[in-house]
Each structure stands twice: as C-alpha cells, then as structure tokens.
C-alpha cells in the first residue's frame, strides 16, 4: 500500500515538474541561437493574442455602430489575428456590403468573412 502511494506521489511530482517547465517557456524563440534574421524581424507583423483580438473586435464594432443607417445591435464581430468574421442579421440587403466595407477599413483588419443575413420581419413579406 505504501509503495502505491509513493508511486502516485512520484508520478504526480513528474507531472507537476513537466507542467511547470512547459508553462515557464517563453515565446522569445526568435532570439534563440540558430534562428535567422528574417525570423527575428517578424515582430513587424500585427500584434496577436487575446488582448489584440479584443481590441480589434471593439474597433470594428465601434466603426460599424457609428454608421447611422446600420443597426449594429444584431451584428456579432469575431476577430482573430486580423481576420474578422461578421455574423448576425441586418434589416436590408444593401447593408451587408456596407458593413463588410466598414470592417475592411479598420486598421489591423487583414480579411473579412461576411456571414450576415437579412432579417425578415414577422408577418411581413
């Protein structure tokens, strides 16, 4: 019984040590020996990460909501590394293209996937 507990403790310690090693590794691999100068200069690319994605999403949504003819309440914006996906509904078919053009005009947006659809009012044809 003691050997089983000791074995579990040893396995647990190895798992913790491995997790801590993986967690403590940084993303500074570009400065590691043997990397090319081109890889080190890739920092000119747009910022990535959750914070940058949230900031870009807010900027796109803000730009859309500034347009008076577009109701942005039913539009969802998802941003990931400069790629923006628009989904939801608009009240008129002409607004679909306008929303995509507004999103493309936001600095940092590299591509726009437009999944907007026209919302048909209930009872109306």
Explain how this protein is built:
This protein is of the alpha+beta class and 125 residues long. The chain has a domain at 50-118: 2-Layer Sandwich (Histidine-containing Protein, Chain: A), CATH 3.30.1340. The protein has helices spanning 2-24, 37-40, 50-65, 94-104, and strands at residues 75-80, 83-90, 111-118. The protein has a three-stranded mixed beta sheet with strand order 1-2-3. Strand 1 and strand 2 form a beta hairpin. The N and C termini lie far apart (75 Å). Residues 27-45 have low confidence and may be disordered.
**Structural category:** alpha+beta
Helix-residue proportion: 40-55%
Mean pLDDT over the residues: 76
- The topology string of helices and strands comes to HHHEEHE
- Compute the number of strand runs: 3
> What's the CATH architecture of the domain at 50-118?
2-Layer Sandwich
State the low-pLDDT regions, or none.
27-45
Strand order of the largest sheet: 1-2-3
Strand fraction band? 15-25%
User: What is the radius of gyration?
Assistant: 24 Å
Query: Would you give the CATH topology of the domain at 50-118?
Result: Histidine-containing Protein, Chain: A
Q: Count of helices? A: 4
Q: Which CATH C-level class of the domain at 50-118 is it? A: Alpha Beta
The N- and C-terminal alpha carbons lie at a distance of 75 Å
Shape: elongated
User: Major beta sheet, specifics?
Assistant: 3 strands, mixed
Biased composition (Low complexity): 26-49
Signal peptide: 1-24
Pfam families: BON
Protein name: BON domain-containing protein
